[in-house]
Amino acid sequence: MDLATYESQLCRDLTLPAEALTRMAQSFKEAMSAGLAGRTSSLKMLPSFLALPTGAEKGRVIAVDFGGTNVRVLEAELTGRGEVKIEQMRRFPLVDPAAGYDYMSGSADASHLFGFIAARVGEIARPGVDYPLGHTFSFPCEQTGVNKARLIVWTKEFKTRGVEGQDIGALFDAALARAGVGHVKGRAIINDTVGTLLAAAYLKRDVDIASICGTGHNTCYLEPSFPATGKPMIVNMESGNFDQVPQTRFDIALDRASERPGAQKLEKMVSGYYLGEIVRHILADMATQGVLPKSAKLGQVLALKGMDLDHILSAKGELHRVSEVAQRCLGLEDLSKVQLQAIQNMVQLVARRSARLVAATFFGTLLHTDAGLAREHTVAIDGSLYEKLPGYAGWLQEALDELAPKGRVTTMLSKDGSGIGAAIAAGMTGTA
Ligand code: BGC
C-alpha cells in the first residue's frame, strides 16, 4: 500500500461526522438514565451528596487534592463572598526513588499511604485551629454520604494494598489521628470533576457540567432531581467507562493489551495517558504496511507521552521538530518530509477525535438535563489536554457548535479546580 492510500483510509476511520456524534450522544443519554435507575449501564452515576455552592461558605479549611502521583495540600480561607483565598499550598510526590518510597505500589498499604499524606497535612495545619477538611480523591468511589466514600477500584496504575473496598474517609481520619493532627477533621470526599464544578460555580453562574481532560478522563454534572432524594445533586458519571464508543482496530488492540481489558473504553480513546499509545499502535501498523520504516521502539509500551504529542502538534510547518520526536522516542530515522507530515496529520486526527468524542458526551448530558437547550450552558474543564494541547479546546468547541446552536454550549478552563473545589466542599459541610 502507498502512503497516500493509507492516509486516506486512516482519515476515514478516525473522522467522526456530526451524525456519529449525535448517535453517540443519544446512547450516552440512555446510559445515564439506565445508571440513574439502577439498571445495568457503563455509567456508574455516583452521587456526591453535594449540590452547587451558594458562595456564602465561610471559614478556614484544609484541602487535600489526591488524584495521581502528586498530592497537593492547601490551607484556604473561604470569605463568604464566593471567594477562596489560598493561604498555603504544598505539592509532593507519592513516589520518590531517591528518598526510597513508593506509596502507589503494592509494597505500600493504606496506613503507609494515608499516614504519609496525614503527616503532610500536619505540616501546614496551624496548631490550635480546628479545621474541616475537604478531600479530592479522583478514583471511582461509591458514596453513601458526603464523607463516606468506598473505593470501588483503583485506576491510573495505583496498586496500594488495603484501599480497594475501604471507606476512604475512615482510613484518612484514622491516619490524621495517628499523626497527631486530630484537629483536622475529614468532612467531604469528592471526585476531581466535582471539585472542578464547585470551583467553577464560584466564577460563573451557568456552569452545570465539569470534566477532566488530562491524563485521565471523566465528567460530572448537576442532576436536577436525583432519584433517591428528588433534589439537585452533583453526579460523578465515571464517564471514562462509557462503552458505546466507535472503536477502531487500533483501539481494540490497545484495550486488549491494557491492564483491564474492556474497562474504561472511552478513557482509552480520549485521555492523555492513552493518546500516545493509540498513535504508537498506528505507527507500528504503518511500519508493518511498509509506509514507514520498522523500528524496535514501536513495540515499546508508553514510548510516546502526552508531552511528545504536544511537540508534534505545536511544530506546525517545522517538520524537523516532528523528526526530533520520531527519532528520540521511536528510533525512526531519515523520514521524508511526506512521512513526517503524515505523522503530524495522524496525531492531529487522533487528538481531534478525542475532543469530538468528549463533546458528544457533553451533548448527551444536556440531552438528559435540558433537551431543548432552553438555557445556556458552560462546561468547566481542567486537565493538560484542554489547557495545553494545540487545537484541542478549539476542536471541542467546534464539535459542540455542530451539535447545538452556536454559542449555546461553551467551555471554560477551571485551573486547579479540584483543590479549590475540595476547600469549597469542606466549607459546604459546616465547621469542625
Ligand atoms: C478516574 C476518575 C477521575 C478521572 C480524572 C479516572 O481514571 O476513574 O475518577 O475523575 O480519572 O482524574
Nutshell version of this structure?
The protein has 432 residues and is an alpha/beta fold. 42% of the residues lie in helices and 20% in strands.
Index terms:
432 residues; alpha/beta; six-stranded mixed β-sheet; binds beta-D-glucopyranose; single chain; globular
Structure description:
This protein is of the alpha/beta class. The protein is built from 14 helices and 15 strands. The strands form 4 sheets. The chain has a 6-stranded mixed β-sheet, with helices on both faces. A 5-stranded mixed β-sheet has the order 4-3-2-7-10. Strands 5-6 form a two-stranded antiparallel ribbon. The site of beta-D-glucopyranose has 15 residues, from helix 5. Beta-D-glucopyranose binds at residues 67, 138-140, 155-156, 191-193, 212, 216, 218, 238, 240, 267.
Spell out the blueprint of helices and strands.
Elements: H1 3-14, H2 18-36, E1 46-47, E2 58-66, E3 70-79, E4 84-93, E5 95-96, E6 101-102, H3 110-124, E7 131-137, E8 141-145, E9 148-151, H4 168-178, E10 184-190, H5 192-201, E11 207-213, E12 217-223, E13 233-236, H6 249-257, H7 265-270, H8 272-288, H9 306-314, H10 319-330, H11 337-369, E14 377-382, H12 384-388, H13 392-403, E15 409-413, H14 417-428
Helix pairs in contact: 1-11, 2-11, 3-4, 5-14, 6-8, 8-11, 9-10, 10-11, 11-13
Bound molecules: beta-D-glucopyranose.
